[in-house]
Amino acid sequence: MSVEQAPVQRADFDQVMVPNYAPAAFIPVRGAGSRVWDQSGRELIDFAGGIAVNVLGHAHPALVGALTEQANNLWHVSNVFTNEPALRLAKKLVDATFAERVFFCNSGAEANEAAFKLARRVAFDRFGEEKYEIIAALNSFHGRTLFTVNVGGQSKYSDGFGPKITGITHIPFNDLDALKAAISDKTCAVVLEPIQGEGGVLPAEQAYLQGARELCDQHNALLVFDEVQTGMGRTGHLFAYQHYGVTPDILTSAKSLGGGFPIAAMLTTEDLAKHLVVGTHGTTYGGNPLACAVGNAVFDVINTPDVLQGVEAKHQLFKTRLEKIGQQYGVFTQVRGLGLLLGCVLSDAWKGRAKDIFNAAEKENLMILQAGPDVVRFAPSLVVEEADITEGLDRFERAIKHLTA
């Protein structure tokens, strides 16, 4: 028997929630594929994907089935015990990547926290306490914990929370000379996103990642790739490092890994993993059976030639049409990104107005994203149907047309 739920509305947010978010004026209540319905029954097309999370859209039958089946069996046992879904998912990740060991947690920030702690622990054990410095890129984003927000290269997120964590240096992205000048034998890790996501959907250059790999090897530093946003098929490869052919020492994954269910992973080699001995790191919910059951289903659907090759075809559909819209209305100068992580770089006349475009799209029943004030971001489901792409981009063009009229 179901209990009658009290009605809620958007105005309730301002009464009961901490005001650290400014959500849209409508409340989504149901999703199917790349369509979402709000409280009033209005249908929207979803090109936001929960910020590159809903990798198989909404209510994908394989994910719903996996979650339901697991929900009837076992939810949580803690890390005092292991569980079957976690072992299955870890094996799949190991078989499909450079990694030999997996650590499960619940969010991208937690995966990065684990990666940075591992990098410092390895350096401490092998070289002593002087080797703890981390180099990261300006405009990078690695999470909101105190450690990860300090490694992230955006002071607007890290200022105002007391003393900064020491030993972190920020250098311009895609600038190999700057990295050369900054790295030293005190560096324990270089941390990079293969595509800067929040920083404006900016892909790394091939030579930059290769150069970073070589510099890390020369200085006994670890190369960490934050693939929280780029991982799990987003670029048309299972992970973006495979697109570049540059192998990191540590890789972090989250967002798409659970297709909307909170799960994250840190992947690394056996040689490095052995430094996290029993008791050195942990998380209560990490690797719980519910999350890992869903993760297994996500993995099985995505890691297929059909889906991964489909990403490239869908990329071309988006890119061609978006470039045409950009030229016709003079709103963006460039469409960049890989696979189904795309950024439209606003022209000088439209700089700072990504939020206006977001709002205009919503009025046309389309959900999109921004990546800073100057870039409009698209991160749709990897299995978004062609008809939805066409219709969604029609709506986007109408929004731009109205905005520029």
From TrEMBL:
Q: Which UniProt keywords apply?
A: Amino-acid biosynthesis, Aminotransferase, Arginine biosynthesis, Cytoplasm, Pyridoxal phosphate, Transferase
Report the main location listed first in the record: cytoplasm
Q: How is the cofactor bound?
A: Binds 1 pyridoxal phosphate per subunit.
Where is N(2)-acetyl-L-ornithine bound in this sequence?
A: R144, T283
Under the heading Pfam families, the entry gives: Aminotran_3
Which CDD domains does the record associate with it? OAT_like (cd00610)
Localization annotation: Cytoplasm
Gene Ontology cellular component terms for the protein in this record:
cytoplasm
Cofactors (names)? pyridoxal 5'-phosphate
Residues holding pyridoxal 5'-phosphate:
G108, A109, F141, D226, E227, V228, Q229, T284
Q: Which reaction does it catalyse?
A: N(2)-acetyl-L-ornithine + 2-oxoglutarate = N-acetyl-L-glutamate 5-semialdehyde + L-glutamate
Signal peptide segment: none
Q: Which GO terms describe its biological process?
A: L-arginine biosynthetic process
- List GO molecular-function terms, semicolon-separated: identical protein binding; N2-acetyl-L-ornithine:2-oxoglutarate 5-aminotransferase activity; pyridoxal phosphate binding
- SUPFAM superfamilies, alphabetized: PLP-dependent transferases
Where in the sequence is N6-(pyridoxal phosphate)lysine found?
Answer: K255
Recorded family membership: Belongs to the class-III pyridoxal-phosphate-dependent aminotransferase family. ArgD subfamily.
Which protein are we looking at?
Acetylornithine aminotransferase
From what organism does this protein derive?
Answer: Pseudomonas helleri
User: What gene makes this protein?
Assistant: astC
